[in-house]
Design brief:
By secondary structure, this protein is α/β, with parallel strands linked by helices. It has two helices and 13 strands.
Amino acid sequence: MFGGRDEDNTSHKAGGGGSASILGAGSHFSGTIKTRGTLRVEGEFEGEAECKETLEVGKTGVVKANLNVKDAVIAGKVYGNIKATSRIELQSGSHLEGDIVTKRLVIDEGVFFEGNCKMGEKRDHITSGSTKSGQAAKSDQGQKQNEHMASSK
């Protein structure tokens, strides 16, 4: 039962082809969890989680943790910050109190979300470059206006 390789009892296949770890309804876990595959929480989890694939919080799931994941699909309650390298999906009826950082965000109707959100790729070098270009354009525009005013006189 526990040590065997019986596929029906020991693991579920995740959507990405990896294995899924499940914290079932009625279960409570406190601590740090790291998984290479998908983690599905239907019970209560408190602490920190690192998930190389997808974190799924089911409708009965309650998570009080900081989460570092690839993808997050939230249908239950999360109290804590989520950093997702790819995508966060907040499904209808979910509850999230915390800050999120992700490339893509999907929020269904009927979601409670309180916190800050940062999205997209890091663009520090692009932003600073465009700011300089913007300042240069303003400077050029101001210079042209001055030249125009001088020629009008």
